[in-house]
Amino acid sequence: MLDPFSLPFVQRGLVEVLILAVPAGLLGSFIVLRGLAFFAHAVGTAAFPGLVLAGGLGFAAPLGALGAAAAFAGLVFVPSRRDGGRGRESYDSLTAMVLVGCLALGVILASDVFHSGADIETLLFGTLLLINHGDIALAVIAAAGALAATGLAGDRWLAAGFDPASARPLGVSSPRLDLLLLGVVALAAAAALAVVGALLVTCLFVVPAATVRLFAGRLRSLQVWSVLLCAAEGALGLWLSVKTDAPPGATIATVSGAVFASAATVRVLIP
Amino acid sequence: MTVLAEAEGLAAGYAGRPVVSGISFRLEAGQRLALLGPNGGGKTTLLRVLLGELEPLAGELAVNARCGTVPQSSAARLDFPVSALDVATMGSLSRLAWWRRPGRAERDDAGVALGRVGMADRAETTFGELSAGQRQRTLIARGLVQGAGLMLLDEPFTGVDRTTATALEALIAEIASEGKGVVIATHDLDQARRCDLVLCLNGAQIAFGPPGEVLTRDVLERTYGGAIIEIPGGGAGILPADHCGHG
C-alpha cells in the first residue's frame, strides 16, 4: 500500500511537502486570522512572471519566484501604508490591482518575449515529483524563516489583528511587523511553487489552517494542528497522485478541499 | 496635580477636513472626563487624536501619560482564538522590547489585573464567549497591564445591562481614585453626570467643565441638536440620534 513512498523521487516529494507543512501551518494560522488569504493566493500567482523570466533567461526558478513574490509584497505593502494601513480592505484592493499587473506581465513575457507557453502548466500547477535539492533547501529556509518570524512577532501579529483600533497604544502597529508578515508569506509561497504551482499555493497556506480554525480555541492549537493537517494532506495527496497517476498539486488541493468541506459540514451539524 | 492631557483650540479630522474643532480642556490625575455627544459628533475622533493615531489639524495638544484604550466591543474580533488571559497579556507588549515575548511574569501580571476587574474565574474563557460587560472588564484589565496612566473608553456602557453598567462604573471610579485619568465617550447623560468633568461636543466643543455647570438644558439642546424630550412627570431625556425622524 505504501509502495509509492519507496520510489526516490516520491520520497523527495514527501520530504518537501513535510518541510513546507511547517511554514504553511504556522503562517497559515495568521493568514486566516488576519484576513490575508487573498494575499497568500495572489503572491503565489504573482510569482508567475518571475518564473517565466527565470526560464527565459536561464537562472534558477526559485530565485525568479522569490524575486517576483518579494516585489509583489512590497508593491502591496508600500501603498497600503500610505493609505493609513487600514488593514484587510486596503490590502485586498491593492492585492487585486497588483495581481492583475503581474499576471498580464507574465502572460506577455511567456507568449511574446520568451515563447515559453509549453511550460506554463508546470509553472501554474507545480512539479512535486521533480523536486531537487535546491527546492528542498529553499523549503528549509522558508520553514526556518517562518519559525523565527512567528516566534518573534506572532504575539504582536495576533494582538494587532484582534483589536486593530488599539494596535498603536499596544505598540503592535509597526510597519515593520506587517512587512515581516507579508515578507515571510511571500518567501514561503515562493518555496511552495515547486510543489503545487502558482495557482494552488492556497491549498497549503490557507485551506488546512482554515479547516483547523473551525475547531481551534487557542492560537497554539491552531498552529500545531494546522502544521499536522497540512503534512497529512500533503502526504495523502502525494500518495493518491502516484496511485491514480494524477497531478500531485491538484490532488493535494482536492484532498485539502474535501477535508475542509467535511470539517465545515461537521461544524454545522455539531455546533 | 499632574496634568495628564491638555488641549487648546484643538481640531482633528480626516484628510485635512476637521470632524471636531475648538476643543479646549485639561484633565488631571484622578479625574474622569465624559465626552458627551451624538453619533458622528466627534467623540471617537477626539479619542483617536488623544491616542496619537491622528495628528491635530490645528491647536495644541499635550498628552503626558501612556494611553490605554478600551474600544467599543464590536471593534475587537470575537472570533479570535484567544482567552481573557491572552487578551490581558497583550497589554504587556507595549512594555517589552520588540524581540521579547510575554513570559510567565507578564501572564502573572495579567492574571492579577483580571482579578482586579473581577474576572479571575473567567481567565481561561475564550474572549468571544464572554458577555459584553465581561469583555469590557477584560479590555480594562489589558489597559491596567499596559501600565496606562490615561484610560480611554469608547462607549463602554453600550450593550450592557444596567447592573453591569453600574459595576463597570464603580470599577472606573476605583481606577481613577488610584490617580489615573479616565476619558469616557458616552451617550448616557446620567453616567456623564457622575464624572468629574464633562466635555459636550457636536462637531465643535459646546461646553466643558464640571457636570453641575455644564449639563444645562441649553447646552444639551445645542449638543444634541434640540433632540431633548420632556419626560412625563418631570425631567428631560436625550432622544438618541438613531431614533430621530422615526416618529
Describe the structure.
The complex is a heterodimer of chains A (271) and B (247). Chain A has helices at residues 8-33, 37-46, 48-57, 61-82, 88-113, 120-125, 133-162, 175-196, 202-205, 207-213, 219-244, 248-269. With 271 residues, chain A is mainly alpha-helical. Chain B is of the alpha/beta class and 247 residues long. Chain B contains 8 helices and 11 strands. Chain B has helices at 43-51, 84-90, 104-116, 132-145, 162-177, 189-193, 211-214, 217-223; strands spanning 3-14, 17-28, 32-36, 58-63, 67-70, 150-154, 181-186, 197-201, 205-209, 228-230, 236-238. In chain B, helix 2 (84-90) runs parallel beside helix 4 (132-145). The radius of gyration of chain B is 18 Å and the shape is globular. At the A-B interface, helix 7 and helix 11 of A face strand 5 and helix 2 of B.
Distance between the termini of chain B: 48 Å
β-sheet strand percentage of chain B = 25-35%
Number of helices of chain A: 12
The structural class of chain A is mainly alpha
What's the story with the biggest beta sheet of chain B? Answer: 6 strands, mixed
Q: Structural class of the helices, strands and pairings of chain B?
A: alpha/beta
Strand runs of chain A, count: 0
**Distance N terminus to C terminus of chain A?**
36 Å
Report the count of strand segments of chain B. 11
Look at the structure and give the mean pLDDT of chain A. 84
Largest interface: pair, residues per side: A-B, 28 and 31 residues
Radius of gyration of chain B: 18 Å
Element order of chain B: H for helix, E for strand: EEEHEEHHHEHEHEEHHEE
**pLDDT < 50 runs, ≥5 residues of chain A:** none
Low-confidence stretches of chain B: 242-247
Query: What is the overall shape of chain B?
Result: globular
Oligomer: heterodimer
- The percent of residues in helical segments of chain A reads over 70%
Question: Strands, helices and their partners?
Answer:
The complex is a heterodimer of chains A (271) and B (247).
Chain A: H1 8-33, H2 37-46, H3 48-57, H4 61-82, H5 88-113, H6 120-125, H7 133-162, H8 175-196, H9 202-205, H10 207-213, H11 219-244, H12 248-269
Helix pairs in contact in A: 1-7, 1-8, 1-10, 1-11, 2-5, 2-8, 3-4, 3-5, 4-5, 4-8, 7-8, 10-11, 10-12, 11-12
Chain B: E1 3-14, E2 17-28, E3 32-36, H1 43-51, E4 58-63, E5 67-70, H2 84-90, H3 104-116, H4 132-145, E6 150-154, H5 162-177, E7 181-186, H6 189-193, E8 197-201, E9 205-209, H7 211-214, H8 217-223, E10 228-230, E11 236-238
Parallel strand pairs in B: 3-7, 3-8, 5-6, 6-7
Antiparallel strand pairs in B: 1-2, 1-4, 8-9, 10-11
Helix pairs in contact in B: 2-3, 2-4, 3-4
